[in-house]
Amino acid sequence: MTQADIIIIGSGMGGAMIASSLAPSGARILILERGERLAPSPQDRDADAIFRTGHFRDQEQWHDGADKPFSPGNYYMVGGNSKFYGAALIRYRAEDFRPIAHLGGTTPGWPISYDTLEPYYAQAETLFEVRGRTGEDPTEPWRSAPYPQPAIADEPDIARFRQALAAQGLNPSAIPLAVDLDRWAEGGKTTWDGHPGTNGGKRDGEHALDTALAHLNVELRTGTRVTRLRAGADGTVNVVEAIGRDGPVRLTARIVILAAGAVQSAALLLRSADEARPTGLANRSDQVGRNFMNHNCSAVLGLHPFRRNRAIYQKTLMLNDFYLEGGPQNAPLGNVQMLGKITGPILAATSGLPRPLAYWIAARSLDVYVMSEDLPNPESRVTLRGDGIRLNWQRSNMRAHAALVAKVRTVLRRAGCPITLAKAFDRRTPSHQCGTARMGDDPATSVTDPLGRCHDHPNLFIADASLLPTSAAVNPALTVAALALRSGQHIRDTILRDASVVAPA
After folding, report:
1. Which of 140, 141, 291, 298 has the most crowded Cβ, counting Cβ within 10 A?
2. Which of 427, 407, 317, 324 is nearest to 366 (CA)?
3. Are 405 and 298 in contact (CB under 8 A)?
4. Is the Cβ–Cβ distance between 44 and 196 less than 8 Å?
5. How far, in Å, are 45, 47, 337, 393, 432 from residue 50 at the CA level?
6. Which residue intervals define the domain Glucose-methanol-choline oxidoreductase C-terminal in the entry (predicted)?
7. Residue ranges covered by each domain of the chain
8. Which residues pair with 372 in a beta bridge?
9. Alpha-carbon distance 228 to 238, whole Å?
10. In angstroms, rounded to a whole number, what is the distance separating the alpha carbons of residues 31 and 466?
11. Long-range contacts of residues 46-54, Cβ cutoff 8 Å, at least 24 apart
């Protein structure tokens, strides 16, 4: 058996951020990651490798609600899915923490407010050197500090699009981005959205993890897949079972932090059922795996047949005019932001269009990402199928999403794009999976308390998107990071303050 003070399972955004928060404590921290570090390769900027052949994607299969197999397209590596994210680090709006009436139902609200999380948003933005600009977005919540860096400038064709939006009375704003543009461009003139970061130009989970690994008390062990947690009669999780490079291993720690991602964390808790807990660990409430959410997303392309879009990265502009209102009965619709520039190879690989047509469209298109909130539903859930994963995602609030797509098409036409094309993302695209171990004050209806500590297990914390009670309608990465920092501070200030918790060196 191997001893540590803290074991963190997973090195994605949540695991990396809580490791960064805990590292200065001096506690011996062991981070377990099933994948490896992603080394620079020719495939990093190869659209065919990324989007057509799936060079970086794991080949595992899950089953859907009808028991049909599908490839979920997740990434298992140091940094997790954030290695391929669009680096948009957007705060949830203050209203997202309160109940909101949507066309598809009313959200339950959070056990904490925006004000509670705001200091941690600011800390996370500092760590990621977020580039942004205030004062443009009418839905922007209050801030205790400005963005650490100025916003990345629009390319000329995107600047013209911004002007066309403003001429319609809309309020385009800069996307807060965790990108060092000059450094990113050293690896090639491509967008970063959907492309792996291997040269440090994109600040992702691995960037945060490296701040933790700068401390000698922190160890990262890759190639180690956790298979089961075991708990004693008092609920304390006393053994972490894993398969490493040399075979099975049993590990112990005073604190265990689960940050494997919304689906994998839920599956691990369910897989860890024992005689005393036949429905899984942390599952007295029967909420583990339930309330799975995955944003309703579509790509909408606007183009003029005689006008080219010469943007390389494109992803600098967002629109929240329809975030809190604008739908039928003035209901909220969601967020609109630029996609990373879709090129001919990307469009051909993802649409099935003939390559000449795909290249013609991509050379002229403004590519927009339309995102609406998926509402929590206890029947939308992760369960086990044997030892594998069954994901019965039951989409909700699609009427709002359809209304937002229609609005965006109208906006694009008014901006000078007579042709618009739209395609919804399907379940094979991991569009911000969350909600399967939601936080709450009531142990009967939630899995963890508002600090991420499992109600049923005094030394088990969760620090990934599983915790989110609602999905909101913006990218969740910054919120996951802020929650992890808050949980880390709680562990430092309470559990680790007792010197007896930290094992001697």
Report:
1. 291
2. 317
3. yes
4. yes
5. 8, 5, 22, 25, 19
6. 394-484
7. 2-501
8. 296
9. 11
10. 19
11. 47/190, 47/343, 47/345, 47/346, 47/349, 48/345, 48/349, 50/194, 50/195, 50/196, 51/194, 51/345, 51/346, 51/349, 51/350, 52/345, 52/348, 52/349
CA distance 260 to 263: 8
Distance CA 183, CA 180 (A): 6
Q: What is the pLDDT along the chain (505 residues), one digit of tens a residue?
A: 668 999 999 999 999 999 999 999 999 999 999 999 999 999 999 999 999 898 998 889 999 999 999 988 889 999 999 999 999 999 999 999 999 999 999 999 999 999 999 999 999 999 999 999 999 999 999 999 999 999 999 999 999 999 999 999 999 999 999 999 999 999 999 999 999 999 999 999 999 999 999 999 999 999 999 999 999 999 999 999 999 999 999 999 999 999 999 999 999 999 999 999 999 999 999 999 999 999 999 999 999 999 999 999 999 999 999 999 999 999 999 999 999 999 999 999 988 899 999 999 999 999 999 999 999 999 999 999 998 999 999 999 999 999 999 999 999 999 999 999 999 987 666 679 999 999 999 999 999 999 999 999 999 999 999 999 999 999 999 999 999 999 999 999 998 876 444 433 3
CA separation, residue 26 to residues 6, 170, 266 (Å): 11, 50, 30
Which residue stretches of 6-113 are H helix? 13-22, 47
CA distances in angstroms from 467 to 110, 321, 391, 416, 463, listed in the order given:
10, 28, 17, 42, 7
Residue 192 CA to chain centroid, in angstroms?
Answer: 16
Please give the span between the terminal C-alpha atoms of the chain, in angstroms, as a whole number: 16
Task: Measure the CA–CA gap between 21 and 425, rounded to whole angstroms.
Answer: 34
Q: Which residue do the tokens 């933790």 mark?
A: 212
Could you tell me if 448 and 437 are in contact, meaning their C-beta atoms sit under 8 angstroms apart?
yes
CA 288 to mean position of chain CA atoms: 19
Q: At a CB cut-off of 8 Å and minimum separation 6, what does 298 contact?
A: 369, 370, 401, 405, 422, 423, 424, 425
Domain 2-501's class? alpha beta
Quick check: 142 and 122 in contact, CB under 8 A? no
Q: Which has the closest alpha carbon to 453: 465, 470, 467? A: 467
Alpha helices in 272-397 (DSSP H): 344-351, 355-362
Q: Which two tokens stand for residue 118?
A: 């705001």
Determine how β-strand 29-32 pairs with β-strand 2-9: parallel
Rounded to an integer, what distance in angstroms lies between the CA atom of residue 60 and that of residue 35?
13
Quick check: helix, strand or coil at residue 320? coil
Counting every residue written for the chain, the total comes to 505
